[in-house]
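Dear colleague,

Thank you for sharing your sequence with our group. We've completed the structure prediction you requested, and as agreed, I am returning the results in plain text so they can be pasted directly into your records. Please verify that the sequence below matches your submission; if there's any discrepancy, let me know and we will rerun it promptly.
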Amino acid sequence: MTEKTIPRREDIQDGHKWDLSPLFSSDTQWNAVYQEIEKKMASYATYKGRMAQSLSVFKNAIEFHLWMQRKIETLYTYAHLKSDEDRSNQLYLGLFQRAVSLLTRVAESSSFLVPEIQSIPEDIIKSYLQDESLSRYRFYIQKILRHKPHTHDEKIEQILALSQDVTQAPSQVFGQLDNVDLKFGTLKDESGREVELSHGNFLTFLMNPDRDIRKKAFYQYYRAYDDHKNTIATTHFYSIKKDHFYARVRNFENCRAAALFGDDVSEKVYDNLIETVKENLEPLFEYLRFRKQALGLRALHPYDIYVPIVGDIEFNMSYEEAVNVIEAAMSPLGESYTRVLKEGLLGGWVDRYESRGKRSGAYSSGCYDSPPYILLNYDDRNINSLYTLAHEAGHSMHSYYSKQHQPYVDYEYTIFVAEVTSTFNENLLTRYLLASHEDNPRMKAFILNREIDNIRATLIRQSMFAEFENITHHMVEENQPLTLEVIRDQYRGLLELYFGDIMIIDAELELECLRIPHFYSAFYVYKYATGVSAAIALADKVIREGEEARNAYLDFLKLGGSKFPLDELMTAGVDMRTPEPVQRALDHFKNLVDQFIQVYKSLK
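Please find the predicted structure tokens below.
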């Protein structure tokens, strides 16, 4: 009989759940705003065909559209957060579907705006942009004009807007299968208790010092994906087909160029990342060889690469303790930052613990009119939960500063810079933990081990994912088959490249690429790798240079989405247009490996 099961939503204490009342006090209020937006949609017609008529009409149209977008964001945010609380809850799944449908219908009603703005004669649009009353909208308008080569006439834009709802099918099907329908069974933990295996505790099992337990968890977890591998391979293929469709329709050379265009990031940045990582894999190989030796293994398998090498240290930290540790670790950013952070993490921003049907993983999400919410599946026994909280808190504080200092039109920052702020917080946390345990070499080795594994996962593994995305998208673009067998073969080739001949590549690991949710958001994962590279450089600056670097970093947070991401990072003091930050991060990784091996050997 199962002794430990995933609790139901209603069994979680209210104080451990996020407070969504700042968004809507009830579903009834949500419905009232929904109906208001539905009625207001007809007002778009009053601006159609008139954008070049006068400055006042142009400005009113922009402001009406932004007002509509802002209202819809509140509806969408509430609906997706409520749905993610329990993916099996049909009421909130329905609200989410209605919100997505409304987004599509508003996109259809407003589809004339961008083509009309782009078709305004150059002398007229230039005079508009020079008017002081439009000063806060200049960057927004300039971004629209930049997309002119990739925008069609009103009729085609209307059709494209209508298509958005349908083309989400691969992502939605995968999400329901992965979060609701997949069942992983139960297995015994180190205490002999039967525990239900889940996304939330899979990594905890892989970190178990008992090799039989982590081996069984690995095979049992992947058995569920093996049972559904053909279905998931199909959703993956059609997600890429969707990307290819939009890239072609938008007149981009390829899917990657289409995905990077919005951030004004060149494909060279992407290539620099992958090339630089692949040229610096030897420190990873050295670490894996040492891991195999230290664990006393004849062969290293995928279920052996997460267990701490310093295996006799038990980690157990409550959520409240984790908040206090993170507050102390972020002290280089000043009292104002840490005060707001702590109040938010303890005061309703965070949905803390796993419950049945809850979305797996973690994220920070919200809108201009809500707190920066965090979804977690916190596990007291897993140090990665501490780091995940610090990571998502970085996102949420970025949102907080952006909303405090930017108008709605410019508050939404890109994922490219978002991944800098989250991994920056992780870096400060590691520095704090290492300093706190300077006189405890065993704990220091444990933390170094964890940091090495984190950078391996965030920089090197995500670069491998990025290369996989590049390969599979290119195959679809070249009309090559992308069957389950092809997907597995391509992924295995990358596993062999990025792990050398040091780790046995079990066939089950070929299915890893089928369980990555981010693959349904094209060319997203490379931003983790560039983000950690920039974060390492910036954290080092803040620690070494003090107040001036700290203020520059906080000013970077305040920029929100008011500039393109590479320009924002230049303001903070790092140039991602060159391979140099990635190389510095890889050098940092090598130094950590050398330091860890030295400390570990001193324990003997």
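Summary note from our side: The domain at 9-166 is CATH 1.20.140.70 (Butyryl-CoA Dehydrogenase, subunit A; domain 3).

Kind regards,
the structure core
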